[in-house]
Write a structure and sequence with these properties.
Length: 304
């Protein structure tokens, strides 16, 4: 059962799997599929134009040079807010701070983002407890360690950035985990996190059937205020809530299938009724200007 703290409004699972039994919840948790965060460009003219527009936006937004690049191509993306937010997420909202800057992706799965960040100039490493995911990543030549979290085993002050995409909700003690990230970051280093949002429209609509709850794997869930407070207790400052790409359609569809006792991870299943599909689209539009109500939270904080 999930309980909400009266003070910070986070939710926690109780009873919960122990450290010894939690692995049983991940026996069918597929993290070893190899994909790509960055869009690839085909040899066609359309592929060249898409890559050129994207790369001009990335250069203007994050100071990262990629080719091909079409000057002022960024203007096209400024007219497409959803596409722009997806591009921001593909870089995890992180500008490259300096040459040979080091990045660690915790819970990296098969290394999709590690691969993408490396192509942008980061000196990258990843860590994941899933042996299948680690094997898949190593087969592509990535520097991936098999290990747990929060005990990473890395030296103090090694990284310029640490990213956790849908990881913090899986750990037994998020504050201990954040303090570990603080330890392995350099002064001025940044943590990037994405996690489900308890204050989302989808949670209000679907309640206990909302896809973001995912018991027994999700042990602690946050809203924007409690996630910022957790960062502060972990030793970080300047916690900034970034806008997340639109995910309401995905969450609504998955939650609707849970409501109908179907596996939300499978492509087959109940389709959203037209009214709910339109509501999901409208929710995505609203969340562009109200990120505190988005289905997912995206936050960056800094080590002093």
């Amino acid at each position: 059962m999930l309980f909400r703290c009266k003070n910070c409004r986070s939710a926690y699972l109780d009873p919960r799997p122990s450290h010894d039994s939690i692995d049983l919840a991940y026996q069918n948790y597929f993290t070893h599929k190899v994909a790509s965060d960055m869009q690839s460009s085909s040899g066609s003219l359309l592929g060249y134009l898409k890559a050129g527009i994207r790369n001009d936006y990335i250069k203007a937004r994050f100071g990262i040079f990629m080719y091909p690049r079409i000057p002022l191509g960024r203007l096209a993306l400024y007219l497409m807010p959803f596409r722009r937010l997806h591009q921001d997420r593909s870089l995890r909202n992180l500008a490259l701070p300096s040459k040979n800057a080091k990045l660690l992706d915790i819970g990296c799965g098969s290394g999709d983002f590690v691969r993408a960040a490396s192509s942008l100039g980061w000196d990258t490493q990843g860590i994941d407890p899933d042996p299948k995911a680690v094997a898949a990543a190593r087969n592509t030549g990535l520097a991936i360690n098999q290990g747990g979290f929060p005990r990473t085993g890395f030296p103090d002050g090694q990284f310029d950035a640490v990213t956790l995409s849908h990881v913090i909700e899986h750990v037994h003690d998020p504050i201990v985990a954040l303090r570990e990230v603080h330890r392995i970051l350099k002064p001025g280093g940044r943590i990037w996190m994405a996690t489900p949002n308890l204050d989302s429209a989808g949670h209000r609509l679907f309640g206990c059937h909302w896809r973001g709850l995912e018991p027994p794997r999700h042990l602690v869930l946050f809203n924007s205020s409690s996630l910022g407070l957790a960062c502060e207790r972990g030793g970080f400052v300047k916690a900034v809530l970034e806008r997340s790409p639109p995910t309401a359609v995905w969450y609504f569809r998955a939650s609707f299938r849970i409501l109908h006792n179907q596996d939300p991870t499978q492509p087959e299943g109940e389709r959203l009724p037209v009214a709910l599909a339109l509501r999901a689209r409208w929710t995505d539009m609203k969340e562009i200007v109200m990120p505190r109500q988005s289905e997912e939270l995206t936050m960056i904080a800094t080590k002093p």
